[in-house]
Amino acid sequence: MSELNQSGPFPTVSWIGDASSGFLRMIDQTRLPGECVEIDCLDTAAVWGAIKRLSVRGAPAIGVAAAYGAVVGARGRGTDDPATVRTSLKETSAYLQTSRPTAVNLFWALGRMEEAADAAGDVSGPELVDRLLAEAHAIAEEDRAMCRAIGRHGADLLATGDGVLTHCNAGGLATADYGTALAVIFTAHEQGKGVHVFADETRPLLQGARLTAWELQNRGVPVTLICDNMAAQVMKEGKIQKVVVGADRIAANGDAANKIGTYGVALLARAHGVPFYVAAPSSTFDLSLADGSGIPIEERDPLEITEGFGRRTAPEGVAVYNPAFDVTPAELITGIITERGVVQPVDAETVRALLGDSRATR
Ligand code: MRU
User: Fold this and answer.
1) What is the value of pTM for the model shown?
2) Residue 279, ligand 1, Cβ within 6 A
3) DSSP labels for 135-167?
């Protein structure tokens, strides 16, 4: 574990060393903002645990971490025999897919790793592992490029002086770098648009307070933290001109799963006439699902609600329901900002027109 310089930019997920003996290094996001430390994952159990407990979180970052985790797993039983590497990769992929169910980027990235192994053909075991690491690097690099493009497309939608509400964390910590929803805000800020962000705290795990406020402060973007239940009042006071959030999985008709509470924010935005945008790369679309009803919603430990951050705040024995995500219906979404442009209005036809069949979904 190592301490990082807090002024960033910071590598959310990185690979240290070569394919045969290297390992995955990540910021432990559970420790932010108090401590900025990195953890090293030397085996697949460590990668699985880091995803499960949200040391690495945010849909694209989970995908990148899983891709590097696949490299670690593929060489787990040695690299002398390429058939053994392929079997280990398949087992690793199946195992990592059980870590979290909602963000489709996890399944997409692991699918790409398996396809890369298939495409490698008749190569030696060490060469196969080299190819897998190259594919993981490509996934990370593409994510960085997609985030920058999302930032460019989305910044055009923000006007000078806008108050922008965001929910959860869709920043550099949630991606390989720069973010999706926060990329839009960072880019607008860099263009001198003078935007002001209202960050929802995001109960129960406080990604908005701990991570979004921290990232925005680090980049010098004006930010005001509010509790989730204050958004209606802040909108009514006229302080919010746009909402921009990320997504974990977007169905073919544009229904978008994101952190629990997003759907409520979308309803509030509609009630107050505030445009509501979702920012996400094409790797977050799941075109195999006609609508959002088929998106699996992760349920998490009740202790996150009753004993968040170590202090009991509810009576022993109380029943708790803790869904980690909700689905915002397409009709509440003004536009989906992708690396290829903005889907607007949002429906099956416009999603298909922008994304076509150009990416496999699983
Ligand atoms: O449970 P988390 O922290 O992984 O949830 C993250 C979100 O809901 C993000 O908004 C989403 O993954 C988009 S990240 C670019």
Assistant:
1) 0.96
2) no
3) HHHHHHHHHHHHHHHHHHHHHTTPPTT-EEEE-
